[in-house]
Design brief:
Elements lengths: L8 E5 L8 E5 L4 E7 L3 H5 L8 E9 L2 E9 L2 H11 L3 E9 L6 H18 L17 H17 L12 E2 L16 H4 L5 E6 L4 E8 L2 E4 L4 E3 L9 H11 L3 E4 L2 E4 L2 E4 L2 H9 L5 H4 L1 E3 L5 H14 L3
Antiparallel strand pairs: 1-2, 2-3, 3-6, 4-5, 4-6, 7-14, 8-9, 8-15, 9-10, 10-14, 11-13, 12-13
Helix pairs in contact: 3-4
Amino acid sequence: MTSTVGRSLELYYIDGRPDGMLTAELFNWTGHVLMAPRTQIAEALARPEASYAGVYLLIGEQEGELRAYVGEGEDISARIRSHDVRKEWWTSAVLITAAANKLNKAHVRYLEARLIAEARAIGRVPLDNGTSPVPAALSEADVAKMEAFLENLFIVLPAVRVDMFIRRTRPATRTSTPDIVLPASTIADAMAPNPRFVLETRKHGLRASAVLQDGEFIVEAGSIARGSWVGPASHNYADLHAELIRSGVLSPEGDHRRFAEDYAFRSPSAAAAAVNGRPSNGQVEWKTDPGGFTYRDWEQSQLQASRGSQP
């Protein structure tokens, strides 16, 4: 059995401002990440690591939609200077290099191809890249090194506010469908540490099930959601709903949409909003199945149980 191992991440705000340039490094990793807003790109490209071989991300919006570009170069600064002129939509850049300029051209071509493939597979942010390059041919040992490099990079990027590589889909947690109603059980069963939750809006024909797993609220594949977003267009969850449709997580099902895969949400309310197509209070709309207790009641029971178990 494997266990989760903690990692130590160091963030350094170069000019002391949380919205300015920053670097990120993991303990015992040779990789180096520099993030800079476009307003400070000249200062960023003047830094020594900007002339190293590496990959980079340009991130911004185009016509109100998130957009990103993945590139590589033996001298990142030269490549970004050319894109600074030709691409007007990006607002921040992420430079990814290695200590002592240890990445070579084949390494960065491999990393670029893998990042593009991963971003497109996840589908959270459309790419401005016109092609999907094939990873450069590397030795077996170098492939292992670059995959390990990527594994660490995917830990670092969310810490610098880049979440386009976070995979929210999960392996199926069960084989039955949400339409099957489980038999009644005891309060103790409903208040167990890992119950199944159900959200049902009969008026609109919606029914979804979810489970808590490793701290994530996972809506299960087969759950039925509203066909379109009917809440305020400016709400944060409107963007989430659109992202789920764009990435294929919410697939057409008559007048509704069906979760094509299990999907991990950050909160019960985010999950409820995706199902209802509007802002929702997941604390009260999700209920244990069996039992019918709200998520809020279940959560309170867990807090009380944990307090009672303290010495």
